[in-house]
Write a structure and sequence with these properties.
The complex is a heterodimer of chains A (about 100) and B (about 550). Chain A has helices spanning about 5-55, 55-60, 70-100; strands at about 60-65, 65. Chain A has about 100 residues and is mainly α. Chain A has one domain. The chains are: A mainly alpha (about 100), B mainly alpha (about 550).
Chain lengths: ~100, ~550
């Protein structure tokens, strides 16, 4: 192989790699956005939904001594928040690993 | 042992510990002073964030507020925890990736503008000063209640301690003392709660206990609702506020939490991006331990109080009643002269006045717990107030030495000089905070909501759009922040201080209270920013590249 062709080949390889990085970065970001949207919908549902907007309706259901709407507002929503963050940590660590191994 | 001896022992021991840690972890560089060298373990950072976040108000007042407002108190529980989800998912990892020292750093660089940086510095100082004045007052109050010294003496002692470890140790010293302070405060809160839960219901876990039944087999909450109805209060498990207002207040507190600079900077102290996410998770877990216990304490305390005093002859009340009466936190005025305590909702017939703080402070005595538990509470309340004050102090000092002096006024300043400036700024800030603690401006209580509203209306939208939009430019961001802050300041001063013609709750826009207005101001910020960005020059390519860079793992 002559030097010029080799050089061309290298540039091409480099271009393909950068393209791949860009596509990967894009895919990574899209996936991250999807996780965020799904987790934030749950975040909204347990607090603003069950704890506030639907609280009166849910209060007709009793769990032990708790009216359910009241329980969500003072306990359930907070537990759900903690779980949501740890689920996100797990998902993102998995995604990070996948992304860095591809590069 | 005597109660006073126990209290001096616990406070003395905990203070020695804080000072020892500060001495061991003193800062030698600006990197250590601002972000603790950036090598804090996520669990340690979680504890530090939790202590930083939970102030004297969380420790002493929150359970009491819930105790008196029942369901309405949920806005604080959800609002002050839900913000961490926003932090973990939307802000913390990217700000860590960006890798600078302060929030104005991010705003200034991302929006390529000194004006944006200065607006951010102004907001950071305003929010932090409002907060810290309340904390120093809290330190004074705790000292005066437990040690029977003058409130002002209490403030001086608090100032000296915070000055020592914040100025010497910077963020590094603060972080490790906050870890110790978290342990002290959470123990102090949980132990009486566990005792009381067990005594009232037989359950050791308070979170389960307050949904359980008492010895007569009746659910506590059902009983409390019944008592409330009898006495003319709204039912405990139902609210009295409008659903819209509850929604708006919760949203403002959540978004405000995510936008508070002294919380955000904690995520600059960890080693890598994934650690920023982890420490948000740990922080919320550590906060949740206290925040899920507080509503349980609220129910136990409320029931105990009503059952002990309502319709009882004044002469036969237990000893703690008279003790707290002397402090002015409890008051009895026999209006109908029958010698019996009438505690009802109707103001003209009610004979009992109760300060909400008593629900936590007097809890161990009401439940007849040993003296060392009461002493532990004193140490816990001080830990809560000191840790938050120190965190705020650092934001104030870094805003001045780093964002103002280094970044705008004298960029040529050497690292050694910057470190001296940071320590000087911290000293001045402590003195100022102490002054406000001794001469509290009447508006401290009213402006706590302002701090959240301001953070929600200024920082949160600017940071969020800085990360999630490539197109948001400096004109949009600055206009948004200015509109958000001005609107919030206008609404708060109008309805809290009576400026601009004043007004009462009937004049609130769409029935939204000033506490909940931060949500409206935040939406206004977003809207203005997006519109202005449409009609002004686009973001430079280098900045777009920077944003793409912080989105990568």
């Amino acid at each position: 192989m002559n030097p010029t062709a080799n050089k061309k080949n290298c540039t091409l390889k480099f271009l393909i790699l950068t393209m791949k990085h860009k596509i990967n970065a894009h895919a990574y970001w899209q996936k991250n956005l999807r996780y965020v949207v799904i987790l934030l919908s749950i975040w909204f549902t347990v607090s603003f939904g069950f704890g506030i907007l639907l609280a009166d309706t849910l209060n007709n259901i009793q769990i032990g001594g708790f009216p359910l709407g009241f329980w969500f507002a003072q306990q359930g929503a907070i537990y759900a928040f903690v779980v949501l963050i740890f689920v996100y940590i797990y998902l993102m660590n998995r995604l990070d690993k996948h992304y860095t191994s591809e590069n | 042992m005597e109660l006073q001896t126990w209290i001096w022992l616990f406070i003395g021991l905990s203070f020695t510990l804080y000072i020892g840690i500060a001495f061991w972890s003193r800062a030698g560089s600006t990197n250590e002073f601002y972000v603790a060298g950036g090598g804090v373990h996520p669990i340690a950072n979680g504890m530090a964030t939790a202590a930083d976040w939970m102030s004297a108000a969380s420790f002493i007042s929150m359970a009491g507020i819930i105790s008196f407002s029942g369901y309405d108190g949920s806005v604080f529980l959800m609002g002050w925890t839900g913000g961490y989800v926003l932090l973990a998912l939307l802000l913390a990892p990217y700000l860590r990736k960006f890798g600078k020292f302060t929030v104005p750093d991010f705003i200034g660089d991302r929006y390529y503008s000194s004006t944006a940086r200065l607006v951010a510095v102004f907001c950071a100082l305003l929010v932090s000063f409002t907060y810290i004045a309340g904390q120093m007052r809290g330190v004074g109050v705790v000292f005066s209640r437990y040690l029977e010294v003058d409130i002002n003496t209490g403030v001086y002692i608090g100032m000296a301690i915070v000055l020592f470890y914040a100025v010497l140790g910077g963020m590094k010293g603060i972080t490790y003392t906050q870890v110790a302070q978290y342990c002290v405060l959470v123990f102090a809160f949980l132990i009486p709660a566990i005792f009381i839960s067990f005594l009232s219901t037989g359950w050791v876990i308070p979170q389960i206990g307050f949904g359980a039944s008492n010895q007569e087999g009746m659910y506590l909450l059902e009983k409390l609702d019944g008592l409330h109805r009898e006495l003319g209060f709204h039912a405990y498990t139902n609210g009295s506020k409008s659903t819209l207002d509850v929604f708006m207040i919760t949203a403002a507190l959540m978004v405000g939490t995510a936008g508070l600079p002294h919380v955000i900077v904690r995520f600059f102290t960890v080693k890598k991006v994934s650690d920023a996410r982890k420490s948000a998770g740990w922080a919320l877990l550590f906060i949740a331990i206290l925040y899920t216990t507080a509503p349980a304490v609220a129910v136990f305390a409320r029931l105990n109080l009503i059952e002990t005093v309502s319709e009882q002859p004044y002469a036969q009340l237990p000893q703690w009643f008279n003790k707290w009466e002397e402090t002015g936190l409890l008051g009895f005025k026999d209006k109908n002269g029958d010698g019996i305590v009438q505690y009802v909702a109707e103001p003209s017939l009610n004979e009992l006045s109760i300060d909400r703080d008593i629900m936590v402070l007097a809890n161990p005595e009401i439940a007849e717990l040993p003296n060392w538990v009461i002493a532990l509470m004193a140490a816990g309340a001080l830990a809560a107030a000191l840790s938050t004050a120190a965190g705020l102090l650092l934001v104030i000092s870094s805003s001045i030495s780093h964002d103002l002096i280094k970044s705008v006024l004298y960029p040529k300043v050497s690292e050694r000089q910057e470190l001296i400036a940071a320590r000087l700024a911290a000293t001045v800030a402590v003195v100022l905070a102490g002054y406000f603690g001794i001469h509290p401006p009447g508006f401290v209580a009213a402006t706590v909501a302002l701090a959240f509203g301001l953070a929600a209306a200024s920082f949160f939208p600017a940071i969020l759009m800085g990360i999630f939009s490539l197109k948001m430019n400096k004109e949009g961001a600055i206009a948004g922040m200015l509109v958000g802050i001005s609107l919030m300041l206008f609404y708060m001063t109008k309805f809290k201080f009576g400026w601009f013609g004043g007004g009462n709750s009937a004049d609130w826009w769409w029935g939204i209270s000033p506490e909940g207005f931060g949500s409206v101001a935040m939406v206004a910020n977003f809207a203005v920013a997006l519109i202005v960005a449409q009609f002004t020059p686009p973001t430079p390519a280098t900045i777009q590249q920077l944003v793409k860079e912080i989105r990568k793992p």
